[in-house]
Amino acid sequence: MEGCGEEEQVKLLGAAKSPFTARVRMALALKGIHYEFIEEDIHNKSELLLKSNPVHKKIPVLIHSGKYVCESMIIVQYIEEAWGNKAPNLMPKDPYDRAIARFWVAFIEDKFAQSVLGVFNGQGEQQQKAAEESVANFLLLEEALSGKAYFGGDEIGLVDISLGGLLVFIKMLEKVTNLVLIDAERMPVLSAWVDRFSEADGVKDVLPDRAKIFEFISGWRAKLT
């Protein structure tokens, strides 16, 4: 395979149940990049992880030819730039479209994620308010997706991976809390995208295990009561 020698030096430190690790695994799978996956115990971090991410000491970390790249969406953008000759393109070629994609990724990482974490950590009135904020954020994403199969257009792109990595966590959070965050009636386009994305090649095989995420969220919520 062309570029095989380079790809053999790719390693990913992560955890199979981590939504952030899933983002990177999606990008690597979509690009057809072979890599060694090293499962990390986040409660007993390896020397390699501490060495490769000394600032945050967190997964995921991509190791490419001995160089370390940290933070899930930074890694995804690095993959696109390092293997830009490999289809599909995870980022638009046009500078404006690329800026718009980065805008929505920043939205998901900041405002959107904070509202979902509010549902995860909150109780009573606080949780209800976070759920309402989450729904409002999903409606913004519904509008941004309108008329397209994926946020990236006809193919999965940067924004799809950013949101898609969180999908299992969000769906299991809905199940544990009995809250509806992605309303099929109010968000038909986004709901169809969830099904389409979840079954896509390069995605379905690396999504976190639903049962394990359900167990994790249930255990966390139990500690809050």
Automatic annotation (TrEMBL):
GO terms for cellular component: cytoplasm. It catalyses: RX + glutathione = an S-substituted glutathione + a halide anion + H(+). CDD domains: GST_C_Tau, GST_N_Tau. Residues 8-87 form the GST N-terminal domain. PANTHER family: GLUTATHIONE S-TRANSFERASE U26 (PTHR11260:SF773), GLUTATHIONE S-TRANSFERASE, GST, SUPERFAMILY, GST DOMAIN CONTAINING (PTHR11260). Residues 94-216 form the GST C-terminal domain. Belongs to the GST superfamily. Tau family. It comes from the Eukaryota. Keywords: Transferase. GO terms for molecular function: glutathione transferase activity. Its EC number is 2.5.1.18. Coiled coil: none annotated. It comes from Pinus densata. GO terms for biological process: glutathione metabolic process. This is glutathione transferase. InterPro entries: Glutathione-S-Trfase_C-like, Glutathione-S-Trfase_C_sf, Glutathione_S-Trfase, Glutathione_S-Trfase_N, GST_C, GST_C_Tau, Omega/Tau-like, Thioredoxin-like_sf. Pfam families: GST_C, GST_N.
